[in-house]
Design goal:
single chain, two-stranded antiparallel sheet, 3 domains, alpha+beta, globular
Amino acid sequence: MSAATGLDYKVISDPTVPLAAAAALNANFPPVFSNARVCVGPRLDGDCKGNSYYVTDGGATENLGLVSALYELRGVLDAWQKAPPKARDGKPILPPQIDVIAIEASAITYDYTDDRGVGAATSGSKERINGGLTAELLTSIDRQLTSLGATKLRLHYLPLPTAFRSRGGFGTHWMQAKEIRVSNPLVPRLGNRFEQWWHQITRRTSYEYLNQGEVSALWRALFDPKANFCTPRDSDSKRMRRVSEWICGTSDAWDIRLDTADPQIVAWSQLVRELGDTGNPGVRGSPGPR
């Protein structure tokens, strides 16, 4: 009779582990690399005398790394409940306000394609299961915090704008590409090459090519706590302004104007406000001045 498989997470807190080794392990993904062996404990003549773990890219189960972090947090709070720390005057110390920031940059697909169910088997199903598990963990952690007299956890979901994550977008690169093709996420599927050519000569193009400097400048502006991304910047190129309009929902191309910003704009503004930075002019669901 075999033992049941559990979700056993091990946190490695060792200052002697080189940052390069941790980064290389984080970049390990199948089928390019084999599972990497991590030895926890003493080694003798190159042989591991402690426990061994064979690990792969976290995206094999969940790209955000949120589930493992929540499991570890739940374990910390469980230990806190069993042996509450006390101040010098003997009063119990309450857990602080806990903020978890989940930064999402995974590719997304919303155009219909018949892939014979491959997408559901390889990614869609695990996303649904992990979403349900995440909700259960958050509920469990909030119960723990409430029983300890602390405030509930605040989860900040911060996705990269859809324009950078859909229809190709930024993708995964070992090094940043010289040019990134960014598609307008507000219009229907681009069609075949003839349709794309016709749209291009009629100036109804649905994509822009941004170079490295332009991508970096847009991302710095997206995550600037003191500025409103949807306020026009004189330093932006024409291509950057078009992509900004797609993100802010203010594009007049294809007769589409949403007057509502990408979820990243709203989520970033809320995150900055809740973490105490009052210098952000903020975006509260509207694109702001053009």
